[in-house]
Design a protein that fits this description.
This protein is 45% helix and 24% strand. It is an alpha+beta fold.
Length: 298
């Protein structure tokens, strides 16, 4: 009787993730929890209204690594965690969904997203476009600042966000935590005029993951053959892409302005704009002066 109870308990604590590929029996491997969050949340109910979001930091290093081992069958390089959590200099964007346990006086991670800025060659979009004219969408729909246009026209590169990982613990599925993490990222990077969009890789038989990304506006544009190596087998990866169109960027800018306080609006209108105008005027004056001096010398 005791042994059967132990077996039942072991079965209960196994975690399920669709990131693990289907085996020959059309089943997925289940893993034992190694993150501390599961023990701390045992027997507790999560108040979704008390979940808060903030960037991940050095104190989250070990827990983030353990969560990745539970969620994903691939071995993430150590450099990903060190660069994004310990020595982040702006190339990486991280966000965690946190919950504070009053009794234990401890903060736990319920979900997280790790992404990084990348410069992608324009022919990448030609390739993943799969005749869907994604590159045409970029050229015709997205408005860039003059500096970005100059850079893109010369280098033929686009700046975008690559999502390295996104996950939520089993206890908090269907609470829209993953959706909030993804939308927070998109709402942040869409303000950058040079940001083309976001993209990521997902194993082809991760059906719930692909449904989640499609629900949030990403499109499957290409399939990389033998992209993942799990154990001694190769698995294909679907590339999901979200292109930021001009109307989405304009809407984001208008929303950002509408959320400003009247003090912020006054600061932008009466201080920032006149300041930039005076700077441009001064530079124009210096340029004209240099030009006139050169003419006089000649």
């Amino acid at each position: 009787m005791t042994e059967s109870l132990k077996e039942e308990e072991e079965k209960e604590i196994l975690l399920y993730s669709e990131s693990y590929p289907l085996n020959s029996n059309k089943e997925r491997e289940k893993v034992k929890p190694i993150s501390q969050v599961h023990n701390l949340l045992k027997g507790k109910k999560i108040d979704i209204n008390k979940v808060y979001y903030k960037p991940l930091g050095p104190n989250d290093y070990e827990e983030v690594k353990n969560l990745h081992k539970e969620w994903f069958p691939v071995d993430y390089p150590e450099q990903l965690f060190s660069d994004s959590l310990l020595y982040n200099q702006g190339a990486f964007l991280t966000q965690g969904a946190f919950y504070f346990l009053e009794e234990e006086k401890k903060e736990v991670i319920l979900g997280l997203i790790i992404s990084r800025w990348e410069y992608v060659n324009k022919y990448f979009f030609d390739m993943v476009g799969n005749n869907n004219n994604i590159l045409n969408e970029i050229d015709n729909e997205i408005s860039y600042e003059d500096e970005a246009i100059l850079f893109l026209s010369k280098q033929k590169y686009y700046s975008c966000i690559y999502i390295a990982s996104l996950g939520v613990i089993d206890e908090c599925r269907n609470m829209k935590i993953g959706t909030n993490l993804l939308k927070d990222l998109m709402n942040y990077v869409i303000y950058f005029p040079f940001c083309t969009g976001i993209y990521l890789n997902v194993i082809t038989d991760n059906f719930s993951g692909k449904k989640f990304y499609e629900k949030n506006g990403l499109k499957c544009c290409y399939t990389f053959k033998n992209f993942y190596t799990i154990g001694d087998k190769k698995y294909d990866s679907d590339v999901y892409v979200k292109i930021f169109k001009k109307n989405e960027k304009d809407k984001a800018k208008n929303y950002q302005y509408s959320m400003m306080t009247w003090k912020q609006k006054c600061y932008k209108l009466f201080i920032l704009k006149p300041y930039y105008f005076l700077v441009y005027l001064f530079l124009l004056f210096c340029l004209c002066k240099c030009f006139r001096r050169k003419i006089n010398i000649d």
